[in-house]
Amino acid sequence: MTTFKEKVLELGSTTHNFPLPSYSLIGEADDTWSQLASMKVFKPASSALSLDLLDIVPSDSQPCGRTTRTFNDTEEFIDYLNHSPINGGLRSISICQKNSWASLKICQPMLESIMRKHDIMPEFLETVRCFHDKTCNVEEAFGGSSWKRCTPLRKELTFVMKYPEHNGRTDGADPWSIRQTGVYQSFDTAKKTSIWILLNPRENTVAENRTKGLLNTQDGFSDPQGQPPLLGLIVLSIYLNNWRTYMTYYEKEELRMSGIVISAVIDEKLQFSHSTLSQLRRLEARLLLLSPIFQSLIQAIHLLEAFNDSLQDYGSVSDKAQKATQEILQNYNNIAIAYSQNATFILNKIRGTAQLLSDTLNLKHQQTSQTISKNTLALNDMAVKDSATIRVITVVTLLFLPAQFIATLFGMQFFSTDSSGTSMVSSSSLWIFFAIATPFTLATFGYWKWMERKQRLKAKLDELGQKC
């Protein structure tokens, strides 16, 4: 009886039994698989796994037979691959993440088995690499690489499509999130066999459900052989127009804020502040990622066009299907270019509004500074006038102070006249006045000197603290 380990080894599910070709652009096999493991692209084999598979096998006597399975066990899945050939048919595999920041819900042996069984080009791992576990919003603008491999016997393509999607947030946060879907499609011209693989950012995506609906319809998909790059067309038709709604949302936000900025009057209170500038910068950040994403999208469309041409060159699809597909792809390419141009326009508007807002705030600050300077100058003038008044009062005080002191001194009971009224006699207790006044005077000057010294010392310590 064949053990599970032997089944895995039979399909080459270890890195040593599944080497990558020397001409592959993604490096050595051990390095590539270890990188995928370190990025947590896969789940452990013992965790909850899920893989949906649909086989369409043609028959001469009856409509195409369809087999739909969901695999949660690695051994069961590999056993199915071993005993279920699809020569002349189509196999569609759908793999998903729990959410767009989680690992794919398959383990490494499952993916290795798929790649070995169906001779999938190693560059597909670059598409898989985009679906890894993460804790922050990294690679949001990275559209991944588009890859194709065309030989007389086999045509393959793979790419990642980025698109916006409503995230359902109602707490005032950004209602849009950037998602991604991975696509792989191949056609074996010798065996007349097609392989479709769809990598989804969550369960039950629109692309997954629409693909299943198409493949499960007898009238809608009766010939699985030699199809155009239909899986890529499905993904484009579903998600491409999301970008228009996404850009319209942020353009409305820009128009709302630009209206406030343009109508501002410098002499009146402004209805915006630095927080408004921060909001504009956040809008700018949301639009900055569109340029690289649209460039990757246009490259993917060109890849689909080349794949479609290669199928027609070897007679795998009819001239009618090839031309119809080519026309659709050209239209998608034009739409992507138009979206890219619109994104550049909106981004420039946001930057212009941000610059106008910044200039307005600077002018308002300058006006406020000028007002403060004028008020300070007026206060200085008042201080100068007050200083002149105080100086006059001081002079008058100094003028009258000696006479006031003499009058006060002689007005006390320490002096009197003799009986004849011709001479003044001082009291023998006159010393008491000087004995009391002198210490108080010295104490007052001493306290003043002590406070002055204390303030100078504090100023020096503050200066030393600033230097340190």
Automatic annotation (TrEMBL):
It is found in: Membrane. Keywords: Membrane, Transmembrane, Transmembrane helix. The chain crosses the membrane at residues 392-416, 428-448. The keyword Glycosyltransferase does not apply. Residues 40-139, 161-204 form the CorA-like transporter domain. Pfam families: CorA-like (PF26616). SUPFAM superfamilies: Magnesium transport protein CorA, transmembrane region. It is a multi-pass membrane protein. The keyword Endoplasmic reticulum does not apply. Its main location: membrane. This is CorA-like transporter domain-containing protein. It comes from Lepraria finkii.
